[in-house]
UniProtKB/TrEMBL annotation:
Keyword Oxidoreductase: yes
Superkingdom of this protein's organism: Bacteria
Span of the entire protein shown here: 206 to 892 of 892
The species this protein was found in: Streptosporangium jomthongense
Keywords: 4Fe-4S, Iron, Iron-sulfur, Metal-binding, Oxidoreductase, Repeat
GO MF annotation terms: formate dehydrogenase (NAD+) activity
Domain 4Fe-4S Mo/W bis-MGD-type, chain residue ranges per copy: 8-64
Family (UniProt): In the C-terminal section; belongs to the prokaryotic molybdopterin-containing oxidoreductase family.
Protein name in the entry: Formate dehydrogenase subunit alpha
EC numbers for this chain: 1.17.1.9
Keyword Iron on entry: yes
Amino acid sequence: VGDRARTSGRTRTTCGYCGVGCSLEVLTRDGEIVAVLPDHDGPVNRGHACVKGRFAHGFLHASERLTRPLLRRDGLLTPVSWSEALDHVARGLRAAVAAGGPDAVAAISSARATNEENYLIQKFMRVAVGTNNVDNCSRLCHAPSAAGLTAAFGLSGGTDSLDDVEGADCLLLVGANPVEAHPVVGARLLRRVLHGARLIVADPRTVGLAHHADVHLRSQPGSNVALFNGLAHVMLAEGLVDDDFLRHRVAGLPELTALLAGYGPDRVAALTGVPAGDLLEAARLYGRAERPAIVYGLGVTEHLHGTDGVRALANLAILRGAVGTGHGFGINPLRGQNNVQGASDMGALPDLLPGYAKVTDPAARARAADVWGAPVPDRPGMRIPEMFAAARAGTLQALWIVGEDVCATDPDTVRVTEALETCPLVVCQELFLSETARHADVVLPAAAWLEKDGTFVNFDRRFQRVRPALDPPGDARTDFAAVHALASALGVDLGCRTPAETLAECARMAPLFAGISHERLDREGAVSWPCPDSLRPGEASLYRERFSTSDGLAHLAACPYLPPGETPDDRYPLVLVTGRRWAHYNSGNMTRRTANLQLEGVDLLDLHPADAARYGLGEGDPVTVRSRYGRAVLTAHLSDDMVPGQVFCAFHFPSSGVNTLTSRHADTVTSCPEYKVTAVRLIPGCV
Ligand code: SF4
């Protein structure tokens, strides 16, 4: 592809697919990757890697890679030079600000981009444009984790590390399928179970690890809060709590105790579909364990009451005294994308600056203004769904999207596409002409993770280095270079000449990362945040002395169960849950252009054989799925892992239209979409 520099060698970097953060060794010869090997010294993967990290790199050389900027002329995206493209964008941004002020511009940063790129993007929006309208795709996945864990404990991250979790004697795995979505974590958890740890799985489907579970809680999609309240009820009723910890380090017990009186096993069985006996057994296993750990995924967060779900789940760890005490391994979210933790850490959020300082806090703004030499806007900006709503309403004049295929992966994509078509200027930085890029006015050719320099933060808060194994093809540039070029086109100097300088600036501004630098990471491999001092190690396990809340206490939350936004009815009698498969990654723009396509070539609809019989469907039959919002055509896959009345599919092939189906409901606290509960009906064939 293009005139890629001829490079040969061996490069140590961090996987750019999921949030596990496996260390990889990339072998190149004459500008081509010849092998990707798991690094035996990798702090997270220790010599393992999955089918994505090891083999899904063919996309780098795909003939459809974008190698020149594209500008829409007479309705067609036409190749142009970078200077023509940037002039057009700069003119458009100036016009947008002139028409509607700085808040008429918004940016969607990228969980696939490095920390340094995310830092630069949010700095560009705040300094060069003058708005807090910047968000990232954590809005669509773990924003409820950030909100829920911060409210409970004070910091926006898991409480412990994967190494800690491996020491657990009881694992509570909730709403996650790590065997497919985070395979190296799945393998490490399975090894722990095979070595004797007890396992409770809470998931509507029989996910991979459920086959090894002591108890499988098959709760109805959307009933998490009732389930967690039921477990807490049993723990309190049977004295399976840490009284000393509750007395000295916890707030909110009386309110929670009062609420839990209404969540006895029989009522919870009626709300969740989980038999009372299973609930009792799970609560006793978790409550009696010496070192219990909770690991959870998007099955907890992507709900109308996702933040309540995180709070209600955190209650279990607090009641048991399993966080901040050394007697358990807390509560740990499995982050989805490679750098979704880092994108938020770097302040690519509408209400938070780097290191989670609030934009509404005058002292935090003053600190940032001091480092940046420019004032910081004080009004929180728009979240991603609000950006699309503003575009449809005509108030958003310019939208800059970095490495996110929002027309394929956001919910209710028909309305997302309408928003892009209405917005006067849409700029996209992409590897390929994605569904989103097709609707852009300007498309800037981007570099992939194997062509970048910087750092990622993985799901357990570890900073790790990302190093380029190849140069980008043709005129493609890193997002880092593109942001600088765009700032220059506007006459703004962002400083931060190199990724190392950029992380150093972030460290000066954010005490959580003050002790972390490229130089240190090159020497030590990985450092966890918080790390306030370059002479101290990062903290893999949090809150040993006090919690980071204002009063130093862990906060229990009394969250009542509320029903999901979508409920089945006669017209839409089934519940659709979406998620990932093992060979592909999100919208599939990368993995579909690799040999992994031979492993999974279509989006399947998993359904129970009884439902298949009801609809006259056999294995491999085409099936049309309809919801209140849209229509998708999938391939039927009969599976005993499903419960009758529920169906499951992934969203790796945008042409199947899965996210036209997903609903408009979103978490009431964070606006995270309710991907996990959509009422649908099936029609055999493609209609
Ligand atoms: Fe990459 Fe995740 Fe697979 Fe590790 S488990 S190789 S980080 S996709």
